[in-house]
Amino acid sequence: MARTLLEIKDLSTGFITEGGIVKAVDGVSLTVETGQTVCVVGESGSGKSVTSLTVMRLSEYDGGQILGGEVWFQGENLLTKSQKEMRRIRGKRISMIFQEPMNALNPVFTVGDQIAEVVRMHERVTRDAAWARAVEMLRLVGIPEPVLRARQYPHELSGGMCQRVVIAMALVCHPELVIADEPTTALDVTVQAQILDLLRDLQQKFGTAIMLITHDMGVAAEMADRIAVMYAGIIVEEGTVEQIFERPHHPYTIGLLKSIPGFEGERGTELYTIRGNIPNLARLPSGCRFHPRCPFATDRCRQESPPLRKLDEGRKVACWYAEDVAAGRVTGAVTGMDVESTEAVPAELSPGDGQTAVRGAAK
To answer: What is the pLDDT of residue 333?
Structure first.
């Protein structure tokens, strides 16, 4: 039976700027159960990575300040622990796969030494035993000739191999939770698919829970059990992968799904984009943070900030008109950029080979 492994409660993290403290994460709550994959999705600047770094207590090294909230991991509040205590947890019980493998690896040590160092830091083993574990992990992550590769430096390996090395480092001590921050961003499509398959296989082998940070809805569809959609530092929708893809309730979620290129339509048709940009976190709009970009915004949206409320079967959404948006009982145009339209347009999902796209169908 699944149990709660990680529980984030009302977490807020800020950074000091000339204009004061800017909240990159503002009251985020999220849970991850044992063996589960939870994807946090959203555009760049939505607060996804800062959330993950705060869980690891690494945001403090980048000038971040934890302003409030709790992060419970197996009955312990990580925010009350010292950095010395956190060093015993990182790598052993919680590991992180960073976005840029070449930046995550030390260029002056061999990859085998770097993996072995994680083992020796957390377990009482000999240097030879740690090295053997490092070589075995390189084999498990699919690197050919692991004995040879273990003696090589990061610059001697391809980007895909370096990402596998980082995954090997994250999993060598069999942690209960792995936080993967955009693990496939810098890789080509073929290698990306291989890395995702590798993460799935290793998750089944070790029973590891994964918190996956991504801006790619296709990756979320392939990997997630649950999805949390973030925008401007807050979660605007959360639900199972089926709920999010089959019947999204927030206009931002619908926009993200519509932005996925599909296989239907005429060649040369302009791809859908969400108008505008994510707001400056130092100058957030009043009311709903998404209202300047939302085709369905009303005066209430501009004046009042909607809470993240529970709907059917565990779904949560922060939108005053979530039920109407999902059912198509709203004024606006989901199908295109014409936000002046007064037709009610329901949003329905249209699956396509390995991806899911949103198709608006006018009544």
So the answer is: 40
Contact 205, 278 (CB under 8 A): no
Q: What is the DSSP string of 114-153?
A: HHHHHHHHHS---HHHHHHHHHHHHHHTT-SSHHHHHTS-
205 and 256 share one domain? no
Residues 183-235 pLDDT 10s: 887 678 888 888 889 899 989 988 999 999 998 898 999 999 999 999 999 99
Nearest to 331 by CA among 288, 294, 289, 290: 294
CB-based burial label for 22 (10 Å; 0-12, 13-18, 19+): middle
What pLDDT, in 10s, does the model give residues 228-259?
999 999 999 999 999 999 999 999 999 999 88
How much is the pTM?
0.86
Q: What are the tens digits of pLDDT across the range 26-54? A: 999 999 999 999 999 999 999 999 999 99
Q: What is the CATH number of the domain that holds 181?
A: 3.40.50.300
Q: Are residues 62 and 197 in the same domain?
A: yes
5 neighbors 209 (Cβ within 8 angstroms): yes
Please check whether residue 356 lies inside any domain of the structure: yes
Segments of the chain assigned E as strands: 4-17, 20-33, 37-41, 64-73, 76-77, 94-97, 177-181, 209-214, 226-231, 234-240, 309-310, 316-317, 347-352, 355-360
* Total domains present in the chain: 2
Domain check: are 169 and 310 in the same one? no
Per the document, the length of the chain is 363
Contacts (Cβ under 8 Å, ≥6 apart) of 289: 231, 232, 233, 234, 279, 305
Residue located via tokens 């529980």: 7
- CA distance between the termini of the chain: 44
Domain presence at residue 230 = no
Note whether 97 and 201 are same-domain residues: yes
Q: Are 312 and 249 in contact (CB under 8 A)?
A: no
Kind and range of the H or E element at 254? Answer: helix 251-258
Dig out the tokens for 165 from the structure. 């090395």
Query: Which structural domain, as residue segments, surrounds residue 119?
Result: 4-224
